[in-house]
Design goal:
Elements lengths: L6 E4 L4 E6 L4 E4 L4 E6 L4 E6 L2 E6 L24 H12 L17 E10 L2 E8 L9 H13 L4 E8 L12 H6 L4
Parallel strand pairs: 8-9
Antiparallel strand pairs: 1-4, 2-3, 2-6, 4-5, 5-6, 7-8
Length: about 180
Amino acid sequence: MSYFEREDVIVTRDCPAVTIPYGSPVTIEKGCSATITQKLGNSYTVIVEGNMYRIEGVDGDAIGQEIKEEEVFMPELPLSEKTIEDACWIVLSEVFDPEIPVDIVNLGLVYKCYVTQEGPEKFTVLLDMTLTAPGCGMGPIIAEEARFKVLTIKGVDKVDVNLVWDPPWSREMMSESARLQLGMM
């Protein structure tokens, strides 16, 4: 499903969600009409009564979709700081801004990925990332999803995510493919 294909559904059970762009938790009630606007990464973006919400993949069944479970990601062997860093960039490309159909890597939101080996097959990851706007209420949710995705990598024991504002994000930080996808070229 591309960003512009919409699908109308009826919510089949009470479903936890968060408001976009504020990030406030809500429950979408059973029987509501919803329009799915995005099915990217491990979540769904829907519009209900004119308001936009994000539904986690594990609750996809409530909107007639496949339940999306996280799986352990296996980096190339042998495990090293380099193979773990490469794996981080792969899994981070599966984290999407719920309002923009582009992943956080191609949006240019991930500034740095530091990997430290703490023991045999035990690694700590530190991410510096930003948001498209400092006041974005979805920031903690996107940062937590990034942290969670990196924790799915075999060998990663700890992940810290720092939201940083310097340098400020700008459209020039987006990859060429992201700008092309969004019609900015």
